[in-house]
Amino acid sequence: MSDEHWVYVVDDDQAMRESLQWLIESDGMRVRTFDSADAFLKACRPDWSGCLLLDVRMPGMSGLELQAYLGRRSIGLPVIIITGHGDVAMAVRAMKAGALDFIEKPFNDDALLGSIRRALENDDRARALRSARVDIQSRIKELTPREREVMDMVTDGQSNRDIATALKVSAKTVEVHRSRVMDKMHAGSLAELVRMVMTVQTT
After folding, report:
1. What whole-number distance in Å separates Cα of residue 146 and Cα of residue 73?
2. To pair with 203 at 20 to 30 A between CA atoms, which of 20, 84, 91, 132?
3. What is the per-residue pLDDT for 145?
4. What is the C-alpha separation between 94 and 86, in angstroms, rounded?
5. Sheet strand arrangement including 31-34
6. 203: burial class by Cβ within 10 Å (0-12, 13-18, 19+)?
7. Residue 173: helix, strand or coil by DSSP?
8. Distance between CA 55 and CA 196 in Å, rounded?
9. What is the spatial distance between Cα 153 and Cα 167, in angstroms, rounded to a whole number?
């Protein structure tokens, strides 16, 4: 997990915030706490990494409303819902909206810490994927229109001969374009090139 990760706790119950902070810090993780969704939003930055521990019922904006708000703004912090017994149905709704887990109060310390670690690992993977997409997209922009056309056809499984026929050029010309594509994309094999294209096509 990244050393830059923080665990952000949003809960209107001061005793709960302090308990969560003590527990998480005792496991070696860094914590910031907020007493409301509004307080969190005033401080939140799009480049924050880590995960969000979110109470369901709070005055003002609820936990579910905050989750939806962050989703609309593409702020991708993994969300763990902390819920009372009566909030289980809402927690399930939050899971369907993308939350990674929900923990019922009173919670098991080990279960909560395990869920947080999984959320931080998920954040690492998501950020690595976003970084890879940006890198691959920048390489694609370096291709000429014809090279992009050849790449799309190659990664679609078409042979050099089929591509030559479709583009009305020689197979040798296709081979030259294909070689340039591999160089500009820094792809060591066709399989690697296909994985790159799939990465930027994945939503």
Report:
1. 36
2. 91
3. 93
4. 14
5. 31-34, 6-10, 50-55, 79-83, 101-104
6. exposed
7. helix
8. 38
9. 10
- What are the φ and ψ backbone dihedral angles of 126, each rounded to 5 degrees? -65, -40
pTM: 0.72
Residues comprising the chain, all counted: 203
Residue given tokens 């399989």 in the structure block: 191
Predicted confidence at residue 74, as pLDDT, reads 77
Q: Both tokens of residue 17?
A: 């915030």
Alpha-carbon distance of 90 to 108, in angstroms, equals 20
* CA 181 – CA 118 distance, rounded (Å): 37
Q: pLDDT tens, 100-114?
A: 888 888 888 999 999
User: How many Å apart are CA 183 and CA 138, to the nearest integer?
Assistant: 14
- How far is 97 from 36, CA to CA, in rounded Å? 20
Q: Identify the band that residue 3 occupies on the pLDDT scale cut at 50, 70 and 90.
A: low
Question: CB under 8 Å to 52, separation ≥6 — which residues?
Answer: 8, 10, 40, 70, 77, 78, 79, 80
Q: What are phi and psi of 73, to 5 degrees?
A: -100, 15
> pLDDT value at position 150?
94
Q: Among residues 76, 79, 72, which one has the least CA distance to residue 101?
A: 79
